[in-house]
Amino acid sequence: MTNRSCITLYNFFVYNSNFGPREGEEHKKILFFHPADTNIDTKIKAVGLSEAVVKFTETFSDKPCDALHTQKTRQVFLQPEKDFWMVMTVTIPKSETEKDGQTHIEYHEDDVQDSVYGAVLKQAYNMFKLFMGPFTSILKLTNVQHLMQRLDHFFPRYLQTLRLGQADIMEVHNGIQFLPLDKNTYLRIQCFINLIEATFSQVKYTAFLYNDQLVWSGLEQDDMRILYKYLTTSLFPTALESEMCRESPKSGGPLPPITSSSHFGKYVTGPQNLNDSNNLGKIPHIYVNTDTRYEELNLIAYRALSATVCLMVEPTSIPGFEWYKKIDAFLGPQLSTLASDISEQYSKRASLPSDQQFKYIYFNHMNLAQKTTIHNRKTLSAIISPEIVRLIADINASFVKTEDDAETVMKTVSDCWVVGKKSDQREFYVVINQKNANLIEINGKYNHMMVT
């Protein structure tokens, strides 16, 4: 009998070597360390080893060190800002087998891919930057102790949300799923957003989503990419879960008509009860354009049916409780109508038959558009074998090493074909489950899919 362990977080820490340059002050370098109850000597040794590895590898390359491989762990490194280093160590899965009364242990290092877990570490920094701001900006405005407090406030809870065992190529691309709409509906949404920003001057940026797909955003791409990750993996699922816990009306009948006084809109972040002026609810602070203007904003999310409008407002610009009531009266009826119209298009498209003979992942580097039929829409976990998902990540890692267009075709031991192509800032990976097919047939099927 074989027992195979999972990938787990061994440690995670942030340090800056400039803060403890003298002997006996090594502990001052450590800004954050998980697990928090780790012995101080163990913390200092872990940071010291990371410093040594970084310094040693600088001798051979201008690029910073990415990863350190050992038999039992994999350590990934990230220098997100000058002099600041983030390090994450994960365990290598192992399997134990009993033979002749002895236990044999085998470590599966191929299960942990540098590019995937390097991307997980980068996302951890991006999430911190979204809610707390960059490290250097915090230091300029406050001091080291305040930076450590922010790290201690954010990362213990964030690290609990990591799904290390399910991390794959989706973390590497970290793309955005867009909702395709007809021209008239898209223009209606754009006019609706323009009207919001013209009517409420406090609104600086707006984003419009339907379910977990983006329709419109006024943010820069990189900022929207991070915000989209937070909305679709944290805020929306949490709001939906709390909504389902409440008592809901009986379903099955037609929706009541939408009027100016009756609609389906409500705040996701903001006041949950518009009759209680003393409770504004939880409103997240976010930081955007940190490389240029460094803007601090309040994120107000308003939802009607399956459509969500995210309003980003400067903290000093939000008036009193009446402003929220005006937003509700303005957004509620119009957003409910738009959501109902989008739902009709969405349901028609979802009912179209799909080819089950192949699965694919598509990513566009120019607009960050991402599509996948390899993953479950709700759980984001892969619905094909882990070996094939890792194979796609390996192909992607080989594409990253060259700026030229490239194409790779592989056949697995289970007679499954995996085709990857990189062309014109786009990546397309197809998994074709067709036994007894040859390379010419697979290439022909792939080219047919590219055309259609």
Can you describe what's shown?
The chain is of the alpha+beta class and 452 residues long. The protein contains 10 helices and 19 strands. Strands 9, 10, 11, 12, 13 and 14 form a 6-stranded antiparallel beta sheet that branches. α6 runs antiparallel to α8 (321-350).
Q: Compute the CA-based radius of gyration.
A: 25 Å
Number of DSSP helical runs? 10
Mean pLDDT level: 88
Unreliable segments (pLDDT under 50, ≥5 consecutive)?
A: 247-253
Proportion of residues in β-strands = 25-35%
Helix content: 25-40%
Please give the number of β-strands.
Answer: 19
Largest sheet, in brief, is: 6 strands, antiparallel
What overall geometry do the principal axes of the alpha carbons give?
Answer: globular
Quick tags:
452 residues, alpha+beta, 5-stranded antiparallel sheet
Task: Summarize the entry for a quick read.
The chain has helices at residues 40-58, 114-132, 135-141, 144-160, 169-173, 183-199, 221-245, 321-350, 386-400, 439-451; strands spanning 3-4, 9-16, 30-34, 67-69, 73-81, 84-91, 94-99, 102-107, 203-210, 213-217, 265-267, 285-288, 295-304, 307-313, 358-364, 370-372, 406-411, 417-423, 426-432. By secondary structure, the chain is an alpha+beta fold. The strands form four sheets. Strands 9, 10, 11, 12, 13 and 14 form a six-stranded antiparallel β-sheet that branches. It has a five-stranded antiparallel β-sheet with strand order 3-2-6-5-4, sandwiched between helices. The protein has a five-stranded antiparallel β-sheet with strand order 16-15-19-18-17, with helices on both faces.
